[in-house]
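RECORD TYPE: inverse folding
INPUT: structure tokens
STRUCTURE:
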């Protein structure tokens, strides 16, 4: 332990007291944050800190910045204002710093957030830019109509003789930096996250089941039809439903997770089958299907307009940022850089997300064009 970070039990309590009564200097606040950063890395060797002291420290910080007290170790879900993060793991707390002058230099080329947008590849090979469809201008082709309501919602409808559409399918696709929602012909509503695709039949009529194929991530509100189950297929699993609300994340080289909000779903992988109840998730593993209770707000945060993560490793957060902001990530640091917890609106520019992560200490970012460079940093330097 460095001399600057060496702190006895009494010194820690005194520092917390000074923060509580607004007597602490910015340097002392910086030292306090660095101390917890050290504690996160070193665990029990960092010093004697009881749970009461942690609570006192957190209370001190939040009183200084006039925010409600929500200790990170409580199981209850919480959201954090855009200017503050609590960084999980073993006790690193974030609070306001003065904005560093280096922000302006490193974030000179900022990146705007993603937007609503997608393309629809029709069975006949026609590729539609769905942004060009408005409430006044629908797309009409033999047997189908794609329209947008006054509220901006997209609808896919089947018209005329549905028999002409048998064995045909369409593919709804979002690029990095895009997301979209669409109501299918059966009334099922789908939200498609960035860098994802959904293949669905041109018509569900005369089919025993309503089968779709997902790559990436989507949230479904399935219309009820007991005679025709709705089945989502991915490269690693199959999810069968009758009428329910659920989210599936199925990105390449990432965990495959199904999260149920309402109803019942059956998750299958090879010969294994698991039935999910509301507020449960199924994670596909090498050995099978792991089911556990979960707070569903995290899984559907993207659909609700939030970037939200809880005790998430930095590389996973950067994947989320890469998809939504359409940027590449370059690491000049070990990828195992601790875990983070926080939330902010997806409408924020990427620099705002990076500033919040930086305030944890330990990492810093530079934006160069559409590449974000991740480097090591120390708040004591």
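DESIGNED SEQUENCE:
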């Amino acid at each position: 332990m460095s001399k600057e970070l060496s702190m006895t039990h009494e010194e820690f309590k005194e520092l917390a007291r000074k923060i509580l009564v607004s007597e602490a200097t910015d340097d002392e606040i910086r030292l306090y944050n660095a101390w917890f950063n050290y504690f996160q890395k070193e665990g029990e060797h960092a010093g004697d800190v009881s749970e009461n002291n942690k609570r006192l420290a957190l209370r001190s910080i939040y009183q200084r910045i006039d925010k409600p007290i929500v200790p990170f170790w409580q199981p209850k879900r919480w959201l954090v204002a855009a200017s503050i993060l609590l960084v999980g793991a073993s006790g690193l707390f974030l609070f306001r710093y003065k904005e560093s002058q280096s922000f302006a230099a490193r974030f000179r080329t900022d990146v705007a957030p993603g937007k609503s947008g997608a393309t629809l590849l029709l069975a006949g090979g026609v590729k539609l830019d769905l942004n060009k469809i408005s409430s006044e201008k629908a797309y009409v082709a033999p047997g189908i109509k794609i329209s947008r309501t006054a509220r901006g919602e997209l609808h896919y409808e089947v018209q005329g003789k549905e028999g002409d559409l048998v064995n045909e399918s369409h593919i709804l696709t979002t690029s990095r930096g895009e997301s979209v929602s669409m109501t299918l012909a059966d009334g099922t509503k789908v939200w498609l996250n960035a860098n994802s695709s959904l293949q669905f039949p041109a018509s569900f009529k005369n089919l025993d089941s309503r089968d779709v194929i997902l790559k990436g991530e989507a949230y479904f509100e399935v219309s009820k039809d007991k005679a025709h189950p709705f089945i989502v297929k991915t490269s690693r699993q199959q999810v069968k439903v009758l009428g329910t609300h659920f989210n599936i994340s199925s990105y390449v080289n990432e965990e495959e997770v199904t999260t149920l909000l309402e109803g019942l779903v059956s998750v299958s992988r090879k010969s294994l089958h698991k039935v999910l109840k509301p507020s449960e998730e199924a994670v596909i593993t090498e050995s099978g299907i792991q089911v556990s209770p979960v707070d569903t707000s995290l899984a559907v945060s993207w659909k609700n307009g939030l970037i939200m993560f809880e005790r998430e490793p930095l590389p996973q957060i950067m994947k989320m940022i890469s998809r939504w902001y359409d940027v590449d990530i370059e690491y000049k640091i070990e990828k195992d850089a601790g875990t983070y917890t926080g939330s902010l609106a997806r409408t924020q520019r990427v620099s705002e997300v990076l500033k919040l992560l930086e305030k944890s200490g330990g990492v810093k970012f530079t934006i160069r064009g559409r590449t974000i460079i991740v480097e090591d940093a120390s708040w004591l330097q």
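NOTES: Residues 40-51, 57-100 have pLDDT under 50 and may be disordered.
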